[in-house]
Design a protein that fits this description.
24-stranded antiparallel β-barrel, 8-stranded mixed β-sheet, mainly beta, 2% helix, 794 residues, disordered N terminus
Length: 794
């Protein structure tokens, strides 16, 4: 094998090539028929360039003007030989040679001066290159730090009525949770009229909302819940609150996982090329492809339809433009992928009114399967003691970038035997969007969560059409019809128009007309003007059945830099003159707000506070509301050090060097980082950031080990009076870290205590230095020396 690939390292190779022709100019070789007579064979060691790409030096065979190459060369060149290609009987060290001329599009040009051969083949002879998204990396979850957390949303209001007693009310939403390596347990509660004001319309007391234990299995993309949850509705079912158990798929546990089919964009490149992909005229991706057909499957995840323009630019600068259309939707599953959920328990009743009222038991299950990238099948079943419901459905991609879906369901029970059907069609492109769905049910059809005394909707229809122009103006029309078994049919027709004014302003006009049932017409004109500094101005003018409303509002949102926000409103709403003002502050410990609203009949003031408490590692922290994961960062001995995610500083260490970092994203890498500008000069720290992968709503501990002591610049001399040599090492006795001596015997050493023994080492020799730090400011770097190093010879 070593004879097959050689580098031209010796002048004898040049002599051999020179002997083949008296001319050094590049010239093409003729391609005779395979039946030509056999004359003297010659071996040509040449650097081979395949379709513009260098492939190394190979031993080619020349016979009667035809060029042959070993099988290994075709394999490395990625060139596919046709089935009818015939090798010649010449063999070198057991290698069979095949004719280059048998490959479609073959061209050969020999350059004696550069000892190379440029070979050209048709792009079709190369195997297709497929660029796909790598399987999302399943990161190892960091150890969970057991924690307790408490979230609160507290509001107090006073309403002064013109012709009624003043109402004072205090309400609170509270959630308590616990997390450890086994999962997360949470319980939420609502407190209403906690002041027991007899003038309040709300009854006083506490109501339990949800209590749920959740355990995630990220390696399997599955989640188990026990307690209060909601069912998965599927295509035709209903989301029902229940108490019980639930187990099923959860693709969100693997960040970057794409469950829907991703369009495959194909093209052809005659030489190694760069492919620029523009999606709806926006550059989304740049890829490098070799010669031959290519397929891009790592398409940026979008939803809907559009156009893709791929600019293929080869190494010679030649461009080819390929245009394709695409359509993708999360309603379809990738081929072979399953999405499922099973639930069992009791239906929750009067949630938010009572704490523990549950209805009859039930069991249900939903299963979706990507049969192909264009067809997803679905089945769902529900059962109780008195009712069984079963249904099937499908979503399919049709020609013309249309998505169709349909489902059928039947129910069986005492006086509850019936059926349901659903049909839908969607189409979305860069400029157009159309959706249509119609659903009907027989009078006796029932499903989970539907009261027995309530009949289903006989027929309901919804349709929408929208169009977006090149200047980003948009038009839309919508129609909704509801036909109950009892009562009159209700139909509503809506229309809207929006237009960009200037660089950022947006004007929107809507109109709605009830064409069946209650007669009503409404129209509105809205103008939104974003300003600098997170400020926005909104203006609205509307008319409903002759009643005109109008208002203008201005607001400023908060962010990491601007913690103080406000909002004002003035105008006429619901037929009354109205004015409002709000002020709110968002900081590391939560959010404070104050509101004032006034109308001719009522003046209301409100104050509120939102935040959280976390108890972890025997420390209590006041923080923002804990809705995501969080980290306990430790910088022992250093207070007021900024810590956050990436470059965003979110909090600071306390007197113990601890800080609670909120807003971590679960199941993916989060970079918890120190602010280096707030570290003292004497701090010696090995790293400024740690990557952690927290579990959902759980804590991780991040320790930044800081080497204690202070830093000093030592100037060291030897017995001969000259400076210690550059490259010598200095080490504090009893520690492992070494410091190098620089020019003029200077060494910067950190981790020094008030009194130290420092060792200098050079060429197998060693001396001891006593270093006493003077009483200076902690951030001041003392300069000590000269310090005499005895016993070390240069």
């Amino acid at each position: 094998m070593g004879f097959l690939r050689l580098r031209l390292r010796h002048t004898r190779l040049a002599i051999l090539l020179a002997a083949l022709s008296c001319s050094v100019a590049a010239q093409p070789l003729a391609t005779p028929s395979p039946s030509a007579g056999n004359t003297a064979d010659q071996i040509l060691p040449l650097e081979v360039i395949i379709n513009g790409a260098r492939s190394g030096t190979w031993l080619l065979l020349e016979r009667n003007g035809a060029i042959y190459a070993p099988q290994e060369a075709f394999t490395e060149w990625r060139v596919q030989l046709p089935p009818d290609a015939q090798p010649i009987d010449f063999q070198l060290h057991g290698q069979t040679y095949w004719p280059l001329a048998a490959v479609p599009g073959y061209q050969f040009r020999l350059d004696y001066a550069n000892q190379s051969a440029a070979v050209q083949f048709s792009p079709e002879v190369f195997p297709a290159t497929r660029m796909v998204n790598a399987n999302p990396e399943i990161s190892v979850v960091s150890p969970v730090l057991p924690s307790l957390f408490f979230n609160y949303d507290l509001n107090y209001s006073t309403s002064v009525l013109r012709n009624a007693p003043t109402v004072r009310d205090m309400g609170m939403l509270a959630e308590i949770g616990a997390s450890n390596s086994w999962g997360v347990l949470t319980s939420s509660h609502a407190g209403r009229n906690l002041t027991n004001d007899p003038n309040s319309y709300a009854p006083g007391g506490w109501v339990r909302l949800e209590t749920t234990y959740t355990r995630n299995y990220p390696s399997e993309n599955r989640t188990f819940r026990m307690g209060d949850s909601t069912t998965h509705a599927g295509m035709w079912g209903r989301n029902v609150y229940f108490g019980g158990i639930q187990y099923g798929s959860n693709f969100a546990l693997t960040p970057g996982f794409v469950s829907q089919p991703v369009p495959a964009l194909t093209g052809m490149s005659a030489a190694p090329s760069t492919v620029e992909m523009y999606v709806n005229d926006v550059l989304r991706q740049v890829s490098n492809v070799p010669a031959g057909p290519f397929s891009i499957d790592n398409f940026p995840l979008l939803s809907g339809g559009g156009d893709v323009r791929m600019v293929v630019r080869d190494i010679l600068g030649r461009e080819t433009v390929i245009e394709q259309s695409f359509f993708t939707t999360p309603q379809l599953l990738a081929a072979g992928l399953d999405d499922w959920s099973i639930e069992a328990g009791s239906v929750r009743q009067e949630m938010g009114v009572t704490s523990n009222r549950y209805g009859p038991g039930f069991a249900s299950g939903t299963w979706r399967h990507g049969y192909t990238n264009d067809l997803t099948l679905e089945t769902r079943a529900e059962t109780t003691a008195d009712l069984q419901t079963f249904g099937v459905g499908a979503a399919s991609l049709f020609p013309g970038q249309f998505l169709g879906k349909g489902s059928l369901a039947i129910s069986r029970g005492e006086n509850m035997n019936g059926g349901l059907w659903l049909l839908g069609l969607e189409h979305q492109t860069l400029h157009h969007s159309v959706s249509f769905q119609i659903q009907g049910a027989s009078r006796d059809f029932h499903q989970l969560g539907q009261p027995e005394t309530t009949a289903p909707i006989r027929q309901q229809l919804a349709g929408n059409w929208s169009y977006v122009t090149n200047d980003r103006s948009a038009y839309g029309i919508g129609l909704a019809t509801l036909s109950p078994y009892s009562g009159e049919r209700i139909s509503t027709l809506t229309g809207n128009y929006s237009r960009r004014i200037g660089a950022h302003n947006n004007l929107n006009f809507t109109v709605s007309r009830a064409i069946n049932g209650a007669s009503s017409t409404s129209a509105g004109l809205f103008l939104t003007m974003p300003l600098d500094g997170n400020r926005i101005i909104n203006t609205s003018v509307s008319n409903q059945d002759g009643r005109e409303d109008f208002y203008i509002s201005a607001m400023k949102h908060t962010n990491l830099e601007n913690t103080l926000g406000w909002r004002t409103l003035a105008g006429r709403q619901q037929g009354e003159t109205r004015a409002e003002g709000s002020l709110y502050y968002t900081g590391r410990y939560g959010r404070l707000s104050g509101d004032l609203s006034t109308s001719p009949d009522q003046t209301t003031t409100r104050v509120g506070a939102t935040g959280g408490l976390v108890l972890t590692d025997s420390h209590l922290f006041v923080t923002q509301r804990v809705d995501q994961s969080f980290a306990l960062a430790e910088v022992a001995g250093y207070r007021d050090i900024g810590i956050g995610l990436g470059s965003n500083v979110l909090t600071q260490t306390d007197a113990d060097g601890l800080a609670l970092v909120p807003r971590l994203v679960p199941y993916q890498k989060n970079s918890v980082r120190l602010d280096p500008g707030e570290l003292p000069l004497s701090a010696d720290i090995s790293t400024l950031e740690h990557n952690v992968v927290p579990a959902w709503r759980s804590a991780v501990k991040v320790v930044f080990p800081v080497r204690g002591g202070r830093g000093a610049l030592l100037r060291i001399t030897l017995d001969d009076g000259d400076a210690a040599p550059a490259g010598a090492t200095v080490q504090i006795e009893g520690e492992e870290e070494e410091f190098y001596v620089a020019r003029r015997g200077a060494a910067f050493v950190t981790g020094l205590q008030p009194a130290n023994v420092v060792l200098l080492k050079w060429n197998g020799q060693q001396c001891r230095l006593d270093v006493i730090l003077p009483p200076v400011a902690p951030d001041e770097i003392p300069r000590l020396g000269p310090l005499l190093c005895k016993g070390v010879i240069r």
